[in-house]
Design brief:
FAD/NAD(P)-binding domain, 5-stranded parallel beta sheet, alpha/beta, single chain, globular, binds flavin-adenine dinucleotide
Length: 554
């Protein structure tokens, strides 16, 4: 007999599951309930529709209920909310949100794909008209209408994560003035602080009033139909609308009420085949707790790629295949005006928090050959195991070619590759696309040099730690040109240009360590090799002066 499969939620995870299941099982009876007005829409495109980058609303609808019926023989019910699961009877109660009618539907297999809901913190005034969260097309339509009807000129965005930043950029595209609040001292909280300094610069350069280390304590009605946003220093900021983007929380109400296990992170607990604690019920997407691929820790990583893959895996398993989910490594990318920030795997923050041993390097390289016009420098931070060189994580910030490098390293992490593999990785090259020694290879070279003992690294953090502890600081040797040194130097550094180093070795103390740096790390590496072979104890300061400045917020 054909099985009845009910899917709750009709966007990334739910829609992928429905379509895949039909491709594997022509007999199954598949029902997909979605409480909103649309299925399979592009949440990720919503900010760009607001900003006028995507002009055709229809393009955001990747598939309609009719398409699901005609192509996949899936019965889709929009405006239908699943209210309750009766696990013993294997039924769900479903309410038509337009008519109010409630029916009971039976299932053999249930798939929960309810996503995550935007957090609305319990601030005074958070429910006032004009305060929005963004989750679906209806939300973005409301913002569009509000801006148009009020001829809005000023917006406050609360939260400097992906959605807050994308909304900020697109409100600027719409011609609004934007104040962005982020309670931490950096935007993009998942990334390490020095890798987002460029984002702060871009935001300020575009006129955003960036309020770091500041938060909103209340919202109230202001004069002339404005909203008054009060910050923690009791300053008032007036705006025509407020976008609340302080994160999302897994939508686990149904699962919890049904007695399914919820993990410590607050997501639905599933096994690697996406099965919940009830074998007849699967769960996928933003609502589930995943295993972090690198750290093996339980985590919430709400991204579209994992949600789609999980939907597909659940369908495979329901259809009798033995697929399993490998975990999520948090590969993500953000476009912010002309800047791109991307990450994969573990960050330094995470490794520190978990006490995981790691080694770190920073390099700066061009997205394509420097001699070909239009090359842009990108910053790469690579984290790897000091024992075997396994790549643990990477972050890249720059204007071009960032996504390509992070995707290559993401695949390396997925395959358990080491920094020695990055050295050997063969990537395509023509001058307009890359370099014969691609930044990914360069990162591999620098990291491998450390593991082979060809150069001993020092991190700027160690330098600060010693300075802050009042410990004697090592001699810092800057091997850039005198002109570069005169323009910009680390306090108390001495300057011997690389080209003069062999002739001026006697000027350097032999009784302590020398910490060597240049602009971005290359000349310092050459200097370290010279000095080491002349018997000096040297360390290479990772990432050069550029990284020093990023870490110093300069
Ligand atoms: P969702 O896509 O949220 O779908 C869940 C659906 O379930 C919802 O439509 C909801 O109405 C429905 N539902 C919930 N409960 C019930 C119920 N009881 N009955 C019926 N229906 C129910 N990710 C990226 O990787 N890259 C990006 O660039 C990116 N940009 C984003 C931009 C925005 C503005 C937003 C909001 C998200 C973005 N994301 C991005 C995140 C990505 O969209 C999500 O990770 C992904 O959609 C999760 O898929 P899901 O199926 O788990 O949940």
């Amino acid at each position: 007999m054909s099985k009845r499969v009910i899917i709750v939620g009709g966007v990334a995870g739910g829609a992928s599951c429905a379509a895949r299941l039909r491709r594997l099982d022509e007999q199954a009876k598949i029902f997909m309930y979605e409480r909103g007005a649309d299925v399979s829409f592009a949440n990720c495109g919503l900010p760009y529709y607001l900003g006028g980058v995507i002009t055709n609303r229809q393009k955001l609808l990747l598939a309609t209920p009719e398409r699901f019926r005609d192509w996949f023989n899936v019965e889709v019910r929009i405006h239908h909310e699943v209210l309750k699961i009766d696990r013993e009877a294997r039924t769900v109660d479903v309410r038509n949100t337009q008519t109010g009618e409630t029916t009971t539907q039976s299932y053999d297999t249930l798939v929960l794909a309810p996503g995550a809901a935007p957090i609305r913190p319990s601030l005074p005034g958070v429910d006032l008209p004009g305060v929005f969260t963004i989750r679906n097309l209806t939300d973005i339509d409301q913002v569009q209408n509000w801006i148009a009807q009020r001829e809005a000129e000023r917006a406050v965005v609360i939260g400097g994560g992906y959605i807050g930043l994308e909304m900020t950029e697109n409100l600027i595209h719409r011609g609004l003035d934007v104040t962005l609040f982020e309670m931490l001292d950096q935007v993009m909280p998942p990334m390490d602080p020095e890798m987002v300094v460029a984002a702060h610069e871009v935001l300020r350069a575009r006129g955003v009033d960036l309020q770091l280390s500041n938060s909103v304590t209340a919202i109230s009605e202001g004069p002339e139909e404005t909203l008054k946003v009060i910050d923690r220093a009791s300053q008032s900021h007036f705006a025509d609308l407020v976008i609340m983007a302080v994160g999302v929380r897994p939508d686990v109400g149904l699962a919890r009420d049904a007695g399914l296990q919820i993990g410590h992170t607050g997501g639905i607990r599933v096994d690697d085949q996406m099965r919940t604690s009830d074998p007849a019920i699967f769960a996928v997407g933003d609502a589930v707790e995943v295993r972090d691929f690198v750290t093996a820790q339980p985590a919430l990583i709400p991204l579209a790629g994992p949600a789609n893959r999980q939907g597909r895996i659940a369908a495979d398993v329901i259809a009798g295949r033995s697929s399993s989910f490998r975990g999520t490594q948090g590969t993500a990318v953000l476009g912010l005006f002309d800047l791109t920030l991307a990450m994969t795997g573990a960050t330094e923050k995470t490794l520190k928090r978990l006490g995981t041993p790691y080694e770190v390097i920073h390099i700066h390289g061009n997205d394509h050959a420097g001699y070909y016009p239009g090359a842009h420098m990108m910053a790469i931070k690579l984290l790897f195991s000091p024992d075997d060189g396994r790549v643990l994580g990477a972050q890249v910030t720059g204007r071009a070619g960032v996504d390509k490098r992070i995707d290559v390293i993401a695949m390396a992490i997925q395959k358990g590759a080491t920094v020695f593999d990055l050295e050997e990785t063969e990537l395509c090259y023509a001058p307009q696309y890359g370099s014969a020694k691609d930044p990914v290879n360069m990162a591999g070279f620098v990291a491998s040099n450390i593991l082979r003992g060809d150069v001993v690294p020092a991190d700027w953090d160690h330098w600060y730690a010693r300075r802050d502890a009042g410990e004697p600081l090592p001699v810092v040797l800057d091997v850039r040109t005198p002109e570069e040194f005169a323009a910009d130097a680390v306090p108390d550094a001495i300057n011997i240009p690389l080209g003069e180093l062999r002739a001026r070795l006697d000027e350097l103390p032999r009784d302590g360590e020398l910490w060597v740096h240049c602009g971005i790390g290359q000349r310092a590496y050459y200097a370290c090799r010279i000095l080491q072979q002349h018997g000096y104890r040297v360390r290479n300061l990772a990432g050069g002066l550029k990284t020093f400045k990023l870490k110093n917020g300069m």
